[in-house]
Every structure is written in C-alpha cells, then in structure tokens.
C-alpha cells in the first residue's frame, strides 16, 4: 500500500492511467456512473445501511487486517456485508477507472493523494462533509494535517484518512559494527551541503571496495565498490525525491519547499539555490563512489539490493519496514533521518484515505463502512497488525507497540510527527506532466550529463504549465 | 508473401489473371455474389476494427483532447507543436537507433546461424532449440534478461566481476540501454529469422555453387557473390517483418527501463503512451502516432520496391 | 548478450563459408568445421541459458535469492514458488518466502489464455482463408483495389486503433468478456489474408477446372478441394497465429479486466507488481513464466518438426 507511495510520481506510469483518458473518451466523461443521487451537499443517511459493500485495496499485506475490520463491522452491523478485493498497484487504478467508465467501480476504495484530485475533477467522488457532519464524526481526531490533505481545491472533502508514512534511515547492523560505528551515533548524524558533515563521514566509512578498503581510506577504488555506504532507490526521484533526497531538501537553510503553497500550489521552486546546492552535494556522493549511480540502480527495488548486502544504509519509507527487517541473512536497524543546516531533521509526510464512488448503488452502507474504516475500532485492529501507521494517534501507538513486540523500534518514524519535523507531500495539478519533465532532467544531472543549473530551465517549463 | 505484394504493385499475376481468361467454357462473368459471401466476415472485421478506428485516430490528431473533456477541433496545432518538441525528436532519434541496431544485428546473426545450420546439420532438434526464445513473449524475455543483466545482482555481471572485469550497466547506462534492449529482442527473434534464412538457403540449387567452384571462386567469394544476392528476397521479407515491428517497440521498454535513464530509452511508442495515456493529451499523442503511421507507410513503399527488385534474382 | 552477439557475427559468417568448403570436399575432420560447430554450440548455449536461469530461479527462495546472486544452482531449493503460483500455499507461507500472499490462480489464467488464443486463431484463420480465396480465385470488380486497402492496414500502428477499439467494445458492453477480447482478432488480420492468398494463387488451375466440370460450385470447391489441399500452409498460419495470440499483451491488458477474462501475459505483469516493497517475487514470477510457457512448449515438442518447417515455409512462400 504505502509501498507504492514512494512511487507517487511514478504513479501514473504504465497503462494505469490509460483509463483516465478512456473515461473521457467514453464520450460523456463521468455521466456513465450508474448509481443514483449524491448531489452536492446531500448528506447520506447511514442509519438505513443494509446490503453489500464492495471495497478495494491494493496492498496484499494489509488484506488480512482489513478483513478483520470487515468481520468486526459485520458483527456490529449484521445487515451489511463488506466484500474486499485486492489488486496490484497499476492494475488497481486501471480497473478502478475502467470501473468508472463501465459503471461497475467499487462502492468504497483506498484512495491516493496523487489521484483524488483528478477523480474529484471528474465528479467521481462523493463529498463526505455533509454526511460526516450529520453523523457527528470528528475529522480532527487524526494525526495533524492528514485530514485536510483530502480537501480538494473546491474545498470539498473526498476522503477520510486511514494511515500515514514518514521516512527513516535503515542500516545493516553487521556492516555498522564492522566499521566500528556505534548504533547510537547513527541517531545523531548531521549533514550539510558543503562537506556532508558527520553523515557523509559515516557513509564514506561504511563504503568498501572489493579489496576491502573503505571509502575514506587512501587507495579506495570507486570503480570496484562492494558495499555502498548509502543506497539509491531506483532513480533520481523526480520532482519529489521522497525516498532519495527529500529528507535533505526539507532541512536546508533557508528552508526550501517544493511549491509556493501546499496543497494545490501553482509555482515550483527547483530554481532556488538551496535546492540546487543540496542536489549538487547529493550527486557528489555518487561521484565519490559512496552511492550507486542512477545507471546502476535503474529499475531496481532498493530493499532487494539492501537484502543482497550491497548497501550499508538506505533512506526509505515506513511502508518498507517489514520488507527491510524480514530479509533473510541481514540484521537491520533503524535510525532517524539526519539533522540538516536548519538544525532539524525532516521527513516527507504522506497518507492514504478511503473514498466513496459517486456511482455507488449502496451509498448508505458505503458511508457507514468509510466511517468505520476511519474510526478507532478499525484503526486499532490495523495498528495491532504492525504493517502501517494508522491515522488516529492512539492506533498509531498500538502499531508502535506491536512493532516493539517484534523487536523493532519504529519511533524514528513517529518522532518526526511528534517533533513536527515533517512536511507534506507536494500536491499540485499537472502531476504526471511534471513528473515526466523532472525525472529525466534530474536523472541527467545525477549522471553528470547536465549541470545542476539546467534545473532552472526545467523549473520554468514546469511553472508555465500553471499559466 | 513477397510475390503477393509484388503482384499488387505490378498488376501482372500469372496464375490469377491467366485463370480467368482460361476458363473460356462459360461466358465471362463476375463471381461477385459468391465473392461477397466469402469476403464478408473479413470485410466486417476490417471496417470495424481497422478502418473506422484509423479515421477516428486521424480526427483525434486534429483536436485538443484531454482527460476531462470532449475533443475540440484545433486544426494542425498538434503538428506545429510536435515539430518544436525536443522530446519528440529525441524519441525519434532513440527509436531509429533501436531499429537500426535491432535489424542489423538480427540480420547478421540470422544469416550466420542459417548458414551454419545449413552447412553443419539438418537436425530438427538444433533448429528447435534455436527457435525456443520465439515461443515466449517479449514481456517475459524482457523480465528474464532484466533479472540476468542487473548491475549489482545479475548473473551476467556476477560472471564479469568473477573474471575481474568491470560490471556493465546494461539497462541503466545512457550508452548501453538501447543496445541492451535491442539485444534482448534480437535474442528472442533471431531463431525465427534464422529459420527463414535457412529455408531460403534450401532453395539455392547446388549447381550454382558448383559452377562457381569450376570458375575458381573461393567459398568466401561465393558467399558474397552467390549466397547473399540469392538470399535477397528472403532478406527483404525479413526487413518487412522486422522494420514495422521494431518501430513499435514498447513492451520491452515498458517492463524494464520505462524510458529512462533520463530520456535514453523514451522510444516513440512509449512517448505516445506517456503523452496520451498518462498526461491525458490524447490529441497530441494521436498526432505523434500519425507521424509514426506516415513513417511506416513510407517504409512500406520503399520495401515494395525492394521486394520487386528481389523477385527476378532466383528464376 | 550484446557483448557476445556483436563481435561473433562476422567471424561466424566467414567460418561458415570455410565449413562449406569442407562439406563439399568430404574431408572427415576439418578445423574450420570444428570451429563452426563451436560457434553453433555457443549460440545454442546463449539461447538455452536464460531458460535454465528461469528454472533455477523458480526453484529458489525469493527472500534469499540475491544473497547468492552468482550461485548456478537454486538458492535454498524449494517448490514453494510453484505452490504459491498455483494457489496451493497459505498466505503466511507465501509471504514468508517472499510472495505477496495475494490470491493468484494461474490455472484459471491458463484456461483463459487457451480459450482466447484458440478461438481467436480458429476464427482468424478460417475467415482469412475465405477472404484470401475470394482475392485469389474469384473474379469481381474492385478486387485488387480492396486488396490493396487491406494491405495498407499492415502499416497502421496498433496503438492507433487500440483506443477507439476499446471504446467500441466498452459501448457494446463487452469489457471483461471473451467476445470483447477476441473480436478484433476473430475476423481477419491483413497478414493472414496475404499469406493464404499467396498460397491459393499457386494452386493448379486444372484441379479447379476438373471440379467445375463436375458441376461443383465455389463453396464446394473451397471446402472440398482447396481447404484440404492447403492443410500445410493453414497449419503453418495457425501455429504462427497461435504463438502471437498467446503472447498478446496490450489489448488483453485493456479489455481482460476481470479474473474470468485475464490471460497469462497480463497476469504475469500484475504478479510482478504484487510485492512492491520487496521487489518482485522472482521465484514466483519465474515459476509462473514457466507455467505460462508450458502449453506452447508442449505443442512445440509435439509438432517441433512441423513448426520448424512451417516457419521456413512461411518465409519461402
């Protein structure tokens, strides 16, 4: 689930969004939605909920937990049955938008920040506020900031938060021990764009070539690296760099933000010096042989290579926790992202929600189920499963405890929220166009084909999209 | 097939034309009724699934047509935009690079394998092995080689490292990505092409070589002066099959590099999908596919001449 | 691959020529011939090794696969991948071995692929044969013009027609059904018509004349004489079409939207993304790939001679 969050930009890759177009090609845009009603401002009467609700999600790892929720929901509301279907990421969006066209989309589905704006523009989603107000649901019960992410530009609420994620620094315990670095030191690393600070020192020391020389030792051969001090996740990260560089650009001084405001900004800031110097430093890690090149990681999943013992540390999202800790033959540790020139750490902050399809033929039961999904009852069940961080703070605590029981301390993720060192994923229009402009441009910068100043021109192109 | 296309072009079809005149017993009449019956299903399929969508596509290319609305006619706006679009030109460049690499290597290898098989063995087993990769889909072939060629954990790079050589960034390198993708597709198709060549070689009578040998020609010269020229029709056919297909390279890119790194593998069809289906600029994407259509049509015309030229060699 | 392929080609060509000399001279052992054999063996190894790697990976455990990327045998050998793919493993078992735990049922997709490929092939070959006959042996106004228009369809990129076709199928309410999946392939492809027309052109006129003397109409002529006579090219075309249909990807991806109409190629793509956090479940994927390839491999083994010869045939004709 969240797993795919890091792909935010990549979201639209492949044929997934083909169907977005198809929706429009249907001739009538959204008027094909079969079900009735749902006109603006109408509250749904959840007291009459009965019958079957179709619910879709994309993460198979979460299926068992949500099945438990569905069972508990059915016990509490015997008249309503929830039928859950799970589809893999690309397939999921493909089917969903096809469903909008063909009139058989699910009543309720897990929604993504990069998608809901478009769906809302196409009038495919139900505005939840009237119903929530009528049923007295408190939209402020979630971790700060999460609920408002789901308000569209028109001010309507199209989703109720279910979970959130942040970024952390995973490391290979054996490599850290072998290098004579204390795990506690990793919790207090600091980076800066000039010399990389203690963070880069550790990365350099953890890097090792095939003849056993470390990255900070004389004679280190950067063309024959056996273990990279820091991994690189698949590509340059495009316009958000969620798992690649967002934790650095989020802690610069003066503070840098990707857009003029968030959500729904209309001006990008890839031309600002603090961004470009940070990228220059980031690239220098590749040039020094401490981090693999874009070419070396094309198409890879970072956790795969971490599992193969080729990386000493990786920056990745909380959604990857189980994947990185469960790798056979590798003992994994978790530290917070490094402190930056701003004097603080930083992490991108992102979350999922559940939305109701406007064409649902059973809106009362659908609304009832969404309210249940966003309630402590369900989120506690999800928290106990230790797969994601539920959006309600008390349920988040349950997840922390459940992970602790497995021997994993996940507070480096949650502290970012409590310490208010997070910033929200940038949500704007033209997301896929911006991704398709920025990804190749940044790839080229990191591989030395273009100077970092070329991003200024790309930034101009991006900002022209908003004119 | 080569003959068929040539017929159309020249209009002189020995068996067909001769036949109708030869059947002089009955008065000449048209078989229109029965012909309609025979052709009706295919005509239906052609009109519904080829002709109509083609005209619709042409219309779309003259519209602004995005995810949220209906098509708005804008004349040739997409085309003027396209000619000023560096990404479009890059896509053309990358695609042509792929097509050339793919065809050159596939043809050379196929001729080599075909000649080797003809000279060494008539074994069906050997030919079956050579054909094996053709049985799996492009998607599978791409995934498999992607696994094997990974920079850090692929077996090929493990072998290179084991031999003390530098690892190669096959799919990830700017300079290596397109050749790698071409190589994967050559791997899948070379057996099929080699069998075509092999079949073509079977049709060259031995006396041609014997006569050459009498004239004192070496084998090497015979290959260049006899085998290759006589293979021309079959090589022309190979070109027909591969050129149109190679220009539409998509699935291999889609499951491996997704256009990257940078824009190194953003081939034309991938760019179309990206513009039309990801960014919702369907009118623009249709214009780009129109250009692809035109290129393929030009190539087809050139090929027609090539095929006709190839006809007379083996008579 | 590239490194092997590139330098090898010119050498092979010249060697082949030398070898040819050896063959003709009937010398028992010839160094050129040995080298030529060596080249052929190398090519066969390059062809076969990836298939071995598929098998090796499918018998490995996904979670530890990349700890030993250079092992030539399976890593932590297990049949777990096959169990996962066939839906025989529990969610917990599957996830412990690096699978997604999501329900997959490749036997169902296998059935769908068989239905799709066989029905599409049968319809396409039959209707194309009818049309090819009309183009080759019947006399009617506008024949060559219509044929030429059909010919131009070869140049239309698939992407160009995919979307309008999708909308058509959607409007007919056939999304996610076999009729919707099969329809665009069922009535004709330009290639099939050219291929068969070419063969029909070559059928001797005398046979036809003799049949006509007996009073046979075109229908009887076609079904009674032309079709049986053309068994070889029709089989060839059918086999080639079957391979192509079996490997079709874009259209089934668009139209085969539910489990009951999803074919193997699409299912493989979906399977690959089921475990986004850990990277693909390579062992499971390769097991699935082998299962997907199995029917074609069996058909191939049964008809190896015919397939191999038919491809030569398709070229020469």
From TrEMBL, chain A:
InterPro entries reported in the protein's UniProt record: SBP
**GO biological process terms, semicolon-separated:** maltodextrin transmembrane transport; maltose transport
Question: Per its record, what are the GO molecular function terms?
Answer: maltose binding
Pfam families attached here? SBP_bac_1
Gene Ontology cellular-component terms for this entry are: ATP-binding cassette (ABC) transporter complex, substrate-binding subunit-containing
Please give the CDD domains that the UniProt record associates with this protein. Answer: PBP2_TMBP_like
Position of the signal peptide:
1-24
Q: Which UniProt keywords apply?
A: Signal, Sugar transport, Transport
Q: Cite the PANTHER family for this sequence.
A: MALTOSE-BINDING PERIPLASMIC PROTEIN, MALTOSE_MALTODEXTRIN-BINDING PERIPLASMIC PROTEIN
Query: Family assignment?
Result: Belongs to the bacterial solute-binding protein 1 family.
Its recorded name reads Multiple sugar transport system substrate-binding protein
Q: Which organism is it from?
A: Microlunatus flavus
TrEMBL record, chain B:
Q: Which residues form the ABC transmembrane type-1 domain?
A: 92-303
InterPro entries in the record: ABC_transporter_permease (IPR051393), MetI-like (IPR000515), MetI-like_sf (IPR035906)
SUPFAM superfamilies annotated for this entry? MetI-like
Give the UniProt keywords, A-Z: Cell membrane, Membrane, Sugar transport, Transmembrane, Transmembrane helix, Transport
Q: Where in the cell is it found?
A: Cell membrane
Q: What Gene Ontology cellular component terms go with this record?
A: plasma membrane
What spans are recorded as compositionally biased (Low complexity)?
9-24
Question: Which segments cross the bilayer?
Answer: 32-52, 98-117, 129-148, 168-187, 230-250, 284-307
Q: Which GO terms describe its biological process?
A: transmembrane transport
Q: What is its main location?
A: membrane
Residues of the region (Disordered) are 1-27
Q: Which Pfam families does this entry report, sorted A to Z?
A: BPD_transp_1 (PF00528)
User: Does Zinc appear among the keywords?
Assistant: no
Q: Does the keyword rRNA processing apply?
A: no
Note the topology in the membrane: Multi-pass membrane protein
Q: Which family does it belong to?
A: Belongs to the binding-protein-dependent transport system permease family.
Q: What is this protein called?
A: Multiple sugar transport system permease protein
Where is the organism placed in the taxonomic lineage, from the top?
Answer: Bacteria, Bacillati, Actinomycetota, Actinomycetes, Propionibacteriales
From TrEMBL, chain C:
| Species for this entry | Microlunatus flavus
**Annotated transmembrane regions:** 34-55, 114-136, 145-169, 181-200, 221-243, 282-304
Does the record's keyword annotation contain Transmembrane helix?
Answer: yes
Q: Which CDD domains match?
A: TM_PBP2
Where is the segment annotated Disordered? 1-25
Q: Please report the record's description of how this protein sits within the membrane.
A: Multi-pass membrane protein
What family name appears in the similarity comment?
Answer: Belongs to the binding-protein-dependent transport system permease family.
What is the annotated localization of this protein? Cell membrane
- Matches recorded under InterPro entries: MetI-like, MetI-like_sf
- Look up keyword ATP-binding and say if it applies: no
Q: Can you list the GO cellular component terms from the UniProt entry? A: plasma membrane
- Protein name (record): Multiple sugar transport system permease protein
